[in-house]
Specification:
The complex is a heterodimer of chains A (336) and B (438). Helices cover 69% and strands 0% of the residues of chain A. Chain A has 336 residues and is mainly alpha-helical. Chain A has a single domain, classed as MetI-like (MetI-like fold, Orthogonal Bundle). In chain A, helix 4 crosses helix 8 and helix 12 packs antiparallel against helix 13. Chain A is globular, with a radius of gyration of 25 Å. With 438 residues, chain B is an alpha/beta fold. Chain B is built from 17 helices and twelve strands. The termini of chain B are far apart. Chain B has a six-stranded mixed sheet with strand order 2-1-3-10-4-11. Helix content of chain B is 46%, strand content 13%. Classes of the chains: A mainly alpha (336), B alpha/beta (438).
Amino acid sequence: MVVSTTSRPGGGREQGARGGAPPSAGGRRRNGLLPVRLRRLGLPYLLILPALLLELLVHLVPMVIGIGMSFLQLTQFFLRNWSAAPFAGLSNYRVAVDVNSAVGRSLFHSFLVTIAFTLITVALAWLLGIAGAVLMQGSFRGRGVLRALFLVPYALPVYAGVITWSFLLQRDSGLVNHVLVDQLHLFGERPFWLIGENSFISVVVVSVWRWWPFAFLVLMAGLQNIPSDLYEASAIDGAGWGRQLRSVTLPLLRPVNQVLVLVLFLWTFNDFNTPYVLFGKTAPRDADLISVHIYQSSFVTWNFGSGSAMSVLLLLFLLLVTAVYLVITSRRRSDA
Amino acid sequence: MRIRKPYLLAAAGALVLAASACGGDNSSKGGGSTGAAEQTITYWASNQGTSLENDKEVLKPELDRFTKETGIKVNLEVVPWSDLLNRILAATTSGKGPDVVNIGNTWSASLQATGAFVPFDDNQLAALGGKDRFLGPSLAATGAPGQPPTAVPIYGMTYGLFYNKKMFKEAGIDKPPATWDELIADGKKLTKDGKWGLAVEGASVSENSHHAFIFGQQHGADLFDSAGKAHFDSPQEVAAIKQYLDLMADAKIVNPSNAEYANGTEAVQDFVSGKAGMLMWQSIATQLKQAGWTEDDYGLAPIPLPDASSGGKQVNAMVAGINLAVFKSAKNQDGALKFVKFMTSKETEQNLNKAYGSLPTVKDAYDDPAFSSETIKTFQQILGTTAAPLPQVAQESQFETLVGNAMNQMFADAASGKPITEDYVKGKLTEANQQMGG
C-alpha cells in the first residue's frame, strides 16, 4: 500500500503555486508532551503503523507460516494437529529439486513452461501497451471512448473474462473455431485449444489480453509527463516520428518501463487465476503453469509440506530475479 | 520531503477503518451460532441435483420437517463438487467447519485417516437402526476395513450403461450390448451424421479414475497391494486403461471433443440431447427429467462384463454414493447425530433418493413403488451383484487425482490423433505411480 506524498512527481513547481494557503504552522501549538523534533520524526511512522500491522498480518505472517510448513511432513494424518507433524528437514526441498524424480522433473518442466509463458506474455503485453499508448497520444475524435474500451479487459473481473475465453476456445461450439474453421477455412480439422499443444498459445493469448491494458495505462500516464517542448524541439531539429520515438519517448519512459516490466513479470509469473479458470484444476501439460502446478501438487499427495517447499523455492527465484533486475537497471540508469 | 498531513491522516484513517471492518466481519462469521448453538447445526450438502439451487429446493422440505420434529434449525450450504474436498480439508485444518457434511464415499478412507470425523461405533449404528439395516455394498464404502465407519451412507449409486432407445431403433439395434465387442459394433452403427456411439467425460479426473478402477477390475488389476503400496502401472491396469482410451482412439465411437469435457455435465448433456447414443454413468434422473425423457426414451443396462475366461473379475461398476459424516469439531454434536438419524430414516431416504434417482441405502426404504422402476431395479441389481468398492485405503484420493490426471493427458493425445500404445500408457501410469512418493 503506497501512500503518495506528492500528487505528481516532477510537477513540483505547480504544486508550490497551488498550495496558496499553506497549512504549515497551524497545528503545532497544541500538545507539548513530546519534544517537537521527536513528534515530527515519529509522526510518519505512527501514521503508517496501521498499514504496517496489516501488512504483517496479511502478508508476512502467512509467509512465515508457509516457510515453517515447508520443513514439516504435513500430510493428511497431521492436518488436524500440525504440531504433531514430523520435522522433515530439507527433504521436501530435496524432492522438489531432484530432477530425476517424477515430482522434481514435472516441477522443472512446469518451471520452464512458466518462464517461456512469462517472457512471451510480458513482451507482447508491453508491445501492445506502448503501441496503444503512443497512438492514443495525439488527440482525435473518439479517443476517450477508445481509451475506455482498451481498459475493459483490465476492469472486468478475472473470472468473467477468462471463463468467456474458455467458452470461445471450445472445440465444437467455440467461436474461435467457428471463425477459423467454418468461416476462414484455415484448418481442415477443428483444432483443440484447451488441451494439447495449442493450450500454451491459448493461455498466452488470454494472459496478454488481460495484462496489456495495464501496460497501456501505465505507459499512457508516463507519456503525459514528457514535456511537449521536447517534441517541438526535436521536430525543429528535423526528427521524424520514428526518431522521436527512439530518442525522446523511449528514453524518457525508462523509469516507468523499469517498474512496469518488473511488475508485469512478477504478476504474470505468479498468476493463478488465468490458468485455473481457463483449464480448471488440471492444466494440460503444455500449459502447466507453476502456480497451478504447485497447488495441484499439494492437493495430489495431500502433502502440504512439499507444496510449501515448492512455493518457497518459487519465492526465492522471484526474489533473485527482482534483485538482479533492479541492480542491472539502476546501474544502467546511473551510468546514463 | 514535505509531508502533506491531511492526505496521510485520511489514508491512515481509512486503513484503520478497513482493519476494524475486516475484524468485525470475521468475528461475526466465525462465531456465527453462539447464542443459539443448542438449536442450530450447519450442514454442507453435495451437489446431487441439476444445480445448487435445485438441491436447495429438494432438501428444504426435508430440513423443515427435521426442524419441526426436533426444534433444531439447519443452516444449509450446497457445496459444488469442485470445492467440496478442499473445503473439508480446510475445515479439518482449522477446526472450524460445519457440523455435518456430505462426502463422496470414495474419500471415506482418506478422510478417515485425518481423524476429522466422529467414528460410528456399534452403539451409534444401533441408534440408527443397526448395521444390518444398511445395504452391504454401501456400508463397505465407509472407511478402512476393520475400523468403525467414518460416515454413514445416505444415497446409493453405481454405474450403468444408459442408451437412447430411439437411436438404437433407428440404427437397427434391438437390445443393449452385452459384451464389449457388441458395444463397439453398436457404437459404430450409431456413429454417423455428427452423432456418436458413446459419450465420455474425458477431462474429468473423477470420472476417469472411476473408469480406471472399473476397467482395471475387469482385467484383474490391483491398484494397491496388501501393504498399501500403489501399483498403478501393472500390465493389467495398462491394458485396462488402453481399452478405455481405445473407445476413442481405436474404435472411434467417442467424439474426440469429449477429451475437453471437464466439468462433469457435458457428456450427460451430449446424451440427453441425442448427440451420443450411450453413456456409462451414475444416476442422471434429474437431468433426464429436465429433458422430459421417460423410460420409453432411454434404457439402462449393466456395463458389459469381461469374458469369464479372461482372468478378470466379474465387476462392471463401482460402489458409488454419498456418505454423511459428523465433524469432531462440531459445535452441536448431539444435534448433528440427530440429523444423521433423520437423514437415514425411512421417510427421508425415500423422499430424497426418489428426487435424486439414487438408491436408498437402508433396506426398509424399498417398499415404496417408486423404487421398482426398471432403472432403479437395474441399478439395484448392479450394486448388489457386480459392483466393487474402490480400495478403502488412505491414499485413495491420491489415486483418483494422479491417475485421473494422467488419463486427461492421454485423452488429449488420443483426441489429437497420437497413437495410444501400451508403452505410452505404461509410461504415463509409471509417472503417476512415482508421484505417490514414499
